[in-house]
Amino acid sequence: MSNLELEHSIEAILMVIDEPVTEETLAKVLDRSVEEIVSALSSLVRAYEYNGFELRQISGGWRFYSRPEYSAVVERFVLDGQQSRLTQAGLETLAVIAYRQPVSRARVSAIRGVNVEAVMKTLVTRGLVEEFGVEPETGAILYRTTTYFLERLGLNSIADLPALAPYLPDLDRLDEILGALTD
Fold this sequence. Notes:
Layout: H1 3-16, H2 23-30, H3 34-47, E1 53-58, E2 61-66, H4 71-79, H5 88-100, E3 103-104, H6 105-112, H7 117-125, E4 129-134, E5 141-145, H8 147-153, H9 171-182
């Protein structure tokens, strides 16, 4: 298989995947070394530099994405009159989970100051949040964001979330207050 055939094979696979695919998976499927796959992916990234889409490494794998400058057009096409956005409560709850994970439902409720049970169910149903073990002290189920969440935000990891500290009050003091409320 030539380099051009390898790139075309990778493109064909990337067109049909539902979630990002790793270099290792591509290497195994195409019977090539990881180094050859990485080289081909780099070549493809350069080849798509002036298209309406791009090839990005997201959430530990590779996938095609529309370019951010075309997001309004893509949003109009995808939604086509449908309302599938999260509510303000959903966005706030998702933000708390993203920045405090793993976190229990009770902790999220304490931070938001409202019951989040229905919102949590919605986030789990939409695949943005998942259960992630049990809190040893209380036995409460812990939640975290999913790879789908990272994918939707275009992030490689939670570490890529923007810093909130400049916009928040003293977080150490907030932890003391929340600790006092839950004791």
